Amino acid sequence: MTVAKYFDEMSYGPAPESDIEARDWLARHASGFGHFIDGAFVPSVSGKSFDTFEPATGKVLAKLASGGAADVDNAVAAARKAQASWARLPGHARARHLYALARMIQRHARLIAVVEAIDNGKPIRETRDLDVPLAARHFYHHAGWAQIQDTEFADHVPVGVVGQIIPWNFPFLMLAWKVAPALALGNAVILKPAEFTSLTALLFAELASAAGLPPGVLNIVTGEGETGALLVGHEDIDKIAFTGSTEVGRIIRERTAGSGKSLTLELGGKSPFVVFDDADIDGAVEGVVDAIWFNQGQVCCAGSRLLIQEGVADLFHERLKRRMQTLRVGQPLDKCIDMGAIIAPVQLTRIETLVKKGVSEGATLHQAKIDLPKGGSFYPPTLLSGVQPTSIVATEEIFGPVAVSMTFRTPEEAIQLANHTRYGLAASVWSETIGLALNVAAKLAAGVVWVNATNLFDAAVGFGGKRESGFGREGGREGCYEYLKPKAWVGRKARAAMPALSQVKPVAGDFALPSIDRTAKLFIGGKQARPDGNYSRVIASPKGKAIGEVGEGNRKDIRNAVVAAQAASGWSNATAHNRAQILYYIAENLSGRADEFASRITAMTGASAANANAEVDAAISRLFTYAAWADKYEGGIHQPPLRGVALAMPEAIGVVGVICPPEAPLLGFISLVAPLIATGNRVVAVPSEPFPLSATDFYSVLETSDLPAGVVNIVTGSAMELAKILAAHNDVDALWAFGSAELSTTVEKLSSGNLKRTFVDNGKATDWMDRSAAEGALYLRRAVDVKNIWIPYGE
């Protein structure tokens, strides 16, 4: 072909990247890679190994050590030994280590990029221009947090030893996302890379050792799923950070229940890509290319569900199909390709099966008529149009280069369709009307929303999901908190066993006029309600005198309370000023009845009058605290290195269950309920089981304080039994439970159904009078999800 013909056709020839250095590096390890433990490469104790393959050819790339229980034990021991010394280093010293790692990545960027492309199958352009530079950016960014940790996180300390499990779709970038903040903030790490793609993690271990990272601070144990399970179950690990499938995330939630381990999960997604009729159509088409055909669609936040407004749907699909035809699928090291290989034959088979299922359910299939390389695992860019919202391809994560498309008429319908998923990781909104775009972005159930863009990432901007896409954030200030714990909670002791419920002693009657019977009811939807089962329990004083009765709540009562809380969704949209006013009003009305509430505390618990008055005063003060925070706990503006901003907006989680601690019956109740309603949540609260009358008295305060019906619902009864119902309820978005260690274990295990966020104390006692341990930002952060809305601007 002549040069002139190339100019006429504007076609691309192959432009292969040299892999000589990468192949030489692999050849130096032809005998196999060991684990990286305590600063050195060591074989598996068992001697077992497994092969890793090149996705583009199916050929064996390397032999890897297979991690067993002894290997994990050795890695954890090395991390535990190193962590205390690492944490004691001045922040500046850790910052210099992270800076050295960032510089090492930059110096060896091309080698890392080539090894990643060979090992994963993605195009070299993506590893070279995105993955590796962004990985270096994470180490630079978190070197900064290490430098200023003493001032910015003065009331926090490192979590300790962290187990991290990363996926195969972004092996090196995921390593940086997790390792950089963990090390920066004083933790030691055991990293388990994906069995398909462990090579860049092992290369990084070599580079980290050469950069002078102290032994034991970073450990890498390779292996398959069983190795990850050993890491999750290890008793001497303080935190698990996992990125992967929702199914595995659910298992991890169950297996860590009650262990006291901190847990962050970044899981699957089925992200909507919403195009309005005033959008830049050509720009949106290019957005689809980046949303679903980037990395062969093997992206957890891929914009795989196209929602196109009816007026432009035909035009959009026509241009999209034309653009699909120009995409090039080829060998990963060819710098002129758009898509490389699927990670493995098993994933290719899954993609093919799901596409066939979608067609059988009525979708129209369009695939680009392009040549695919011979051998290896390749799949063409694919569009399924006319998809129904309930189709399997619209509800299940395909994790391949397959976009599914449906239409909508109004913004309200678009929001409804976008949120019609159990996931909530990311979304894209395309419109030239910024007011429309931001209005829709605010209403989408997603942790990240891109406006007129997609798949933008930066170390300064938090990333993470809602619903079954997991919980926790990675990146930025919000991501740092995932690797820290409050100083005020360090060294908390196990809660002392509560005395057995006082039994009512028989009392002989007399001829005096008896008091009028008063049984406290439940409080649901702003009204007092009798318990469904019509059972009640007597509350006795420590001396056995009956001082009241409360209803025995059951499953139906919880169901009614959750329905009432859902109906009160307007509270989440109320102005922060309005929420503050009502909290002040609640405090005012409680203040007017302070003596009454103090007397009730004394009667129930036997506390001295002074202590009871102190508890009521602290409760009033705490209401003032959260009234003050209601219009001040605000978001921030991130400025990533692009022309644009990312708005970090704290959002109410939704409906939150609260199991109040047995002690401090008024202050414990308010300490948990107040931060939740201050930030716009609606609450179903179970008061102190032995001392519930403070909470049932309190609903009369709520009735006179202009709190909308359904914002706070109170169901009395067994803490454990009601917690089980709330934890398993799919319409409860989070559950806070303070009580026994058994209660915490039960709540965390049962919450795995819809992967609701949990906040438990693992049976540790909190001093509710201690403001540093019992109020403020520690609780507000757990009362919200942070949504990052990216808004590019300019040319």
TrEMBL record:
The active site is at 266. Keywords: Oxidoreductase. Residues 42-487, 537-761 form the Aldehyde dehydrogenase domain. Belongs to the aldehyde dehydrogenase family. PANTHER family: ALDEHYDE DEHYDROGENASE-RELATED. This is Aldehyde dehydrogenase family protein. It comes from Rhizobium changzhiense.
